[in-house]
Design goal:
Number of helices: 10
CATH topology of the largest domain: Quinone Oxidoreductase, Chain A, domain 1
Strand content: 25-35%
Helix content: 25-40%
CATH superfamily of the largest domain: Medium-chain alcohol dehydrogenases, catalytic domain
Order of helices and strands: EEEHEEEEHHEHEHEHEHEHEHEHE
Largest sheet: 7 strands, mixed
Length: 339
C-alpha cells in the first residue's frame, strides 16, 4: 500500500468536483482503514454538492455515503473486523437500533457524505461501528447499493409497514429504492403494482412486477382502482412527494400504510384529509434505517438471492460522468468502481 491516494473533493458548495492526491489516512483508536472497492450514487449526493442541503460541510468536502470495501488495517481497540473482511457502510452511522436519534426540535441528520465526510476515495478511515459485514452473495458493486437504496426499501416495507403475503404494494417509481422495494415485496409474497415511465415497463415486469401503470396517465387513480377491484393498495412506497402523496392517499386501501420516502416533486407534501382519516391510513416518514436493519437486510439478501439492479458502472476517474448520468436519471443504481 502506498502513502498517498486519490480522493474527490470540493472546496465550496456548488464547485466542480476535483480529484486530488492526498495522504492515506491512519486509523486511530476504535477505527479501521477500508480500501474502497465500489461507491453507489444517490440523488442526495448531487443535491449536497449543489446546495449543501443546509448541512455543516467541512471543506475540503468529499461526497457520497454508500461504499463496499475491504478492511486493510485496524487502530488500537478495534476488534469488530479482521483484516480482509468485506464491509459496507452505514448511512446514518450513529443509529444502531431502536428509534432514530434526535428530538422534536432537531431531527437527526448526521449521515455519511453530509454531516460526516463522504467515501468517494480510494481509502477511508471510520469508526468500526459505522460498518457491517457485506453479503457473501453479492459483488462489491452490488453490495455498495445497499446502505441507502436497499435499506430504505427494506426498512419501509418490512420493519415499519410489515408487508406480508397476500398484500398489494404500490411502488411509484423505477429508481434504486423502488426496484429494491419491488424485489423485497415479491419475496414476501405480495402483489406489486409499479408506476413509472412507459419505456420502463418491460424491464420492470422482468423483475417481477405484477402490474405496471404509466405514471403520466390521466386516469392513473382509476387504473389502480380497476386493478384492485376498488379495494385499493395495502402499502405505498411514495418516492415522488409533493402533491403525489394525495394520489397515494386516494388509491390506498382501508388500513393502508404509506411510506413517504422521496421528494422528487417537492418537500411540501399535500393530501386530502377526509380519505386519510376515513380510511385509517398510517403514514410513515422514512429516512433510511438503523444499522441493525441493514444487518437484517443483508441476511435476507444472502437467504433469498436478491440481486440489486445496476444501471451503469463507471471507473473512479470517470466520477464526473457518473454524476452526469445521475442527473439524467437511471433505471436502478449507478456505481463507481475503484481499482
Amino acid at each position: 500500500m502506498t502513502d498517498t491516494m486519490q480522493r474527490w473533493e470540493i472546496d465550496a458548495v456548488g464547485e466542480r468536483l476535483t480529484m486530488r492526491t492526498v495522504p492515506v489516512p491512519v486509523p486511530q483508536h476504535g477505527q479501521v482503514l477500508v480500501k474502497v472497492r465500489a461507491v453507489a450514487l444517490n440523488y442526495r449526493d448531487k443535491m449536497v454538492l449543489e446546495n449543501g442541503r443546509g448541512l455543516p460541510l467541512a471543506f475540503p468536502f468529499t461526497p457520497c455515503s454508500d461504499l463496499s470495501g475491504e478492511v486493510v488495517a485496524s487502530g488500537p481497540g478495534a476488534t469488530r473486523f479482521t483484516t480482509g473482511a468485506r464491509v459496507v457502510s452505514a448511512f446514518t452511522p450513529e443509529w444502531i437500533d431502536g428509534l432514530r436519534p434526535g428530538d422534536a426540535r432537531t431531527p437527526a441528520y448526521r449521515t455519511l457524505g453530509g454531516y460526516y465526510p463522504g467515501v468517494l476515495a480510494e481509502y477511508v478511515v471510520m469508526p468500526e461501528a459505522w460498518l457491517v459485514l457485506a453479503p457473501s452473495t453479492l459483488s462489491d458493486a452490488e453490495a455498495a447499493t445497499l446502505p441507502v437504496a436497499g435499506l430504505t426499501a427494506w426498512f419501509a416495507l418490512v420493519e415499519r409497514a410489515c408487508v406480508r403475503a397476500g398484500d398489494t404494494v404500490l411502488i411509484t417509481s423505477t429508481g434504486g429504492v423502488a426496484l429494491f422495494g419491488l424485489q423485497i415485496a415479491k419475496a414476501h409474497g405480495a402483489t406489486v403494482i409499479v408506476s413509472g415511465r412507459a419505456s420502463n415497463e418491460t424491464r420492470t415486469r422482468a423483475l417481477g412486477a405484477d402490474h405496471y401503470v404509466d405514471s403520466r396517465s390521466d386516469d392513473w387513480v382509476e387504473t389502480i382502482y380497476g386493478i384492485t377491484a376498488d379495494r385499493g393498495v395495502d402499502h405505498v412506497l411514495e418516492v415522488v412527494g409533493g402533491n403525489h402523496l394525495g394520489k397515494s392517499v386516494q388509491v390506498a386501501a382501508v388500513g393502508a400504510h404509506i411510506c413517504q420516502i422521496g421528494a422528487l416533486d417537492g418537500f411540501d407534501l399535500s393530501a386530502p384529509a377526509m380519505p386519510l382519516m376515513l380510511k385509517d391510513i398510517t403514514v410513515h416518514g422514512i429516512g433510511t434505517g438503523s444499522r441493525r436493519a441493514l444487518e437484517n437486510l443483508i441476511r435476507a439478501v444472502d437467504r433469498i438471492g436478491l440481486k440489486p439492479v445496476i444501471s451503469a458502472r463507471y471507473t473512479m476517474t470517470d466520477a464526473l460522468a457518473a454524476f452526469s448520468h445521475l442527473e439524467r436519471g437511471a433505471f436502478g443504481k449507478i456505481v463507481i468502481d475503484f481499482p
